[in-house]
Amino acid sequence: MVLWIASQYPELVRALIIEDIGAIINNDLSFALDWPKRFPSVRSLRNFLKANGFEDDTYFLESLVEYSDGWEFRFHYKDIAHSQELLNGDHWNDWLSSNCPTLLLHGHKSWVMTKEHAREMTLRRPNTKLIEFPECGHTIRDDDPEGLYHAVKAFLKEI
Which of 47, 50, 66, 138 has an alpha carbon 20 to 30 Å from 97's alpha carbon atom? Predict the structure, then answer.
């Protein structure tokens, strides 16, 4: 995780841009283990995702591969569930151990991080700028690519 690298090797990190990830991470993606391996059509996949609470399917559609018997993701469900398990934990020490300029981006509709947590991260760590996206979820790059572009561009100009 980039927070660990910044805290352990500050000479390698000039600045951080963090999109909607908190200092405490506790998410469970094991629900994906029960998903179908293949979908008969893109429409059936989109309907499945919507029925399971995913309003924005952009990420998933970019991960699709067509086979002779249907559509499948490029990733394996067990791998994303395991990756999330490894990412979970309390990362406050890493967050507070570096002081390079940091842009923290947060989508108010995120299922990953709350507004309160994003604001606490900003208050507790010097040299951190928070930009909030009220109409975005976790993947700001999908929900508001132009807004993300302008936020990052302005931040990079500052440093």
Answer: 138
